[in-house]
Design goal:
This protein is 34% helix and 10% strand. It has four helices and three strands. A three-stranded antiparallel β-sheet has the order 1-2-3. A hairpin with a 5-residue loop joins strand 2 and strand 3. Helix 1 crosses helix 3.
Length: 119
Amino acid sequence: MPSLEPGSIPPDILPREENSRDGRPLRPAGRIDGAACRGARAMLGISQTDLCRLARCGRNLLNDFERGGHVPRASSVARIRAALEGAGAVFVDAGDGTVLVGVSGRSRPGTTAGPSEGR
């Protein structure tokens, strides 16, 4: 898995300015939340078990984070985010506090799991 720093999205992946809601350029999102994590994982087809392995975190921690029951330490969120970005997820700040989630054309199918687990 390529090592990306959390929040360091290659500029050619970011949406163009005309795609922003208010005409301002879109920027990489800051800290992601559980909904963004769950959405990215679903788009990539990665199970909770596989993401836990990639991010070196526990299943309970990830499950609680995704359902909004717990906010993990910043270091845990950074590992989760780095694992998702390494698999092709893109997190963008919409400028209104919303984190937009997408998948780049560079997503790595080899990191995906079967359709049933962790969804």
